[in-house]
């Protein structure tokens, strides 16, 4: 399966390029808005992604910033690509944030999960059990759509060049019985199978490791093929939302946290052996 350009990544790249061109002119966002007769926050909202930029607005900004012909071609193409639909748009009602769009074009994904098996390696039965538990008032149609959306994400690993996936999983995630013992046995077996993929590394953080740097919860670092064009982003999960961090200080903090977790976790070979023992604890 070939990789499809992510409109989420293209929209982010467009915002960054518009900010770069504005900085080149030495103008503040408020000065640009005033000169164009726009509301004073309009330019900032474009640049941080709080408002969708229209084609005519891109043209207006390029004129003001004195963009070269090459820059015009590049940014016009980015705007066109950013308006396309990713596969996840069909699940907009059950995929409320942009994480999947950022994940879709990642070259490397480094993630820590404390309570769940990571989404890209979940079995259908495990997904269904999680959705039912977390959406007690949902009807069957909503449950089915959430399950379908989660499973559709797994196509990422079937790409011609899948992302490098490095996962640290707290022991609690494989010990908690989600969906029953048979579901968990199959889920742990899926993790063992994934360990054989050349693009996947799995490490288990055992209870015996004690306190660690990510006691606050799960997170993911998403790296891209060209870090100058598409810098790393960090996603942090909590009970009600997902928070995106792009500033270098946040990226550095979470990268250090991930390195700390890797150092405290079992190495990949030990983790496979550990998962085998966990699987044996669940009845056939």
UniProtKB/TrEMBL annotation:
| Annotated InterPro entries | Cro/C1-type_HTH, DUF5753, Lambda_DNA-bd_dom_sf
Which intervals hold domain HTH cro/C1-type?
Answer: 18-72
Q: Which domain of life is it from?
A: Bacteria
Q: Which GO terms describe its molecular function?
A: DNA binding
**TM region positions:** none
Q: Which Pfam families match?
A: DUF5753 (PF19054), HTH_31 (PF13560)
| Protein name listed in UniProt | XRE family transcriptional regulator
Q: Which organism is it from?
A: Micromonospora craniellae
């Amino acid at each position: 399966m070939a990789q499809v350009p992510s409109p989420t990544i293209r929209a982010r790249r467009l915002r960054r390029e518009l900010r770069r061109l504005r900085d080149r002119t030495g103008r503040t966002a408020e000065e640009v808005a005033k000169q164009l007769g726009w509301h004073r926050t309009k330019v900032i909202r474009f640049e941080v992604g709080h408002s969708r930029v229209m084609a005519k607005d891109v043209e207006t900004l390029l004129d003001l910033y004195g963009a070269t012909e090459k820059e015009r071609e590049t940014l016009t193409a980015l705007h066109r690509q950013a308006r396309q639909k990713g596969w996840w748009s069909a699940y907009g009602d059950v995929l409320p944030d942009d994480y999947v769009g950022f994940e879709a074009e990642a070259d490397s994904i480094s993630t820590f999960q404390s309570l769940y098996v990571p989404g890209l390696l979940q079995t259908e039965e495990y997904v269904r059990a999680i959705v039912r538990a977390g959406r007690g008032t949902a009807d069957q149609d909503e449950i089915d759509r959430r399950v379908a959306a989660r499973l559709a994400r797994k196509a990422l690993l079937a790409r011609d060049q899948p992302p490098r996936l490095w996962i640290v999983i707290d022991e609690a995630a494989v010990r908690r019985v989600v969906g029953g013992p048979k579901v968990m046995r199959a889920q742990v077996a899926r993790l063992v199978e994934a360990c054989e993929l050349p693009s996947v590394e799995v490490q288990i953080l055992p209870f015996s490791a004690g306190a660690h740097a990510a006691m606050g919860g799960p997170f993911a670092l998403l790296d891209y093929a060209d870090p100058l064009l598409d810098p790393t982003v960090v996603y942090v999960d909590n009970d009600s939302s997902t928070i995106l961090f792009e500033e270098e200080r946040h990226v550095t903090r979470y990268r250090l946290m991930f390195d700390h977790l890797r150092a405290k976790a079992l190495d990949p070979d030990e983790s496979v052996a550990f998962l085998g023992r966990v699987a044996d604890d669940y009845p056939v």
